[in-house]
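Lecture notes, continued. The same structure-token format from the folding unit now serves as the input rather than the output. Read the line below as a description of shape only.
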């Protein structure tokens, strides 16, 4: 396939998609390094076995998976020229994303209420790893929230329609990536304790 063929708009779209994929691979490498360090650190004698995994993280997983579904439904609604439905699904995605963030902070509070802190004399390597993994993911979610707000703004400006979905597709790809990343982290932290 000759990557130099096609319209300028098509080439720009391919370049933007490639840049997004490079960014996502970079983020994957970051989390691969952190989870590898977690696995290696698990052999330490001060590793905790009594930390109870917060239920808030379970509910946050449900919220973020639901947000991916509403994002997909928003795209389908735009392609079917059902703007009101698309608006409702995009707002729903935003609400679910905010709920996810709130539940993540509730999870932090639950860990603290068990007596495990991020730093200080009452911290542990186990809790610190959980804090770091969740906080780094939340930073990526914050980026996703900004992207989602841009998508909602562009939707209200009627910039998306069949044949003009590049920005929406880039945002959706990133959003689903962040969601899958959390599901992986959740399963990793839940089952690999």
């Amino acid at each position: 396939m000759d990557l130099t063929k096609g319209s300028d708009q098509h080439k720009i779209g391919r370049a933007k998609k490639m840049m997004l994929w490079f960014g996502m691979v970079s983020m994957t490498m970051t989390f691969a390094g952190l989870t590898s360090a977690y696995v290696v650190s698990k052999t330490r004698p001060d590793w905790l076995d009594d930390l109870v995994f917060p239920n808030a993280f379970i509910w946050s997983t449900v919220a973020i998976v639901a947000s991916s579904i509403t994002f997909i439904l928003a795209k389908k609604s735009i392609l079917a020229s059902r703007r009101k439905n698309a608006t409702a699904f995009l707002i729903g995605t935003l609400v679910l994303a905010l709920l996810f963030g709130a539940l993540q902070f509730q999870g932090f509070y639950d860990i603290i209420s068990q007596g495990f802190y991020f730093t200080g004399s009452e911290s542990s390597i186990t809790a610190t790893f959980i804090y770091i993994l969740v906080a780094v993911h939340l930073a990526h979610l914050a980026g996703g929230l900004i992207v989602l707000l841009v998508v909602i703004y562009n939707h209200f400006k009627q910039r998306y329609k069949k044949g003009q979905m590049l920005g929406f597709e880039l945002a959706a790809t990133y959003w689903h990536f962040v969601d899958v990343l959390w599901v992986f982290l959740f399963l990793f932290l839940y089952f690999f304790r």
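Point for the exam: Residues 8-191 form a domain with the Four Helix Bundle (Hemerythrin (Met), subunit A) fold (CATH 1.20.120.80).
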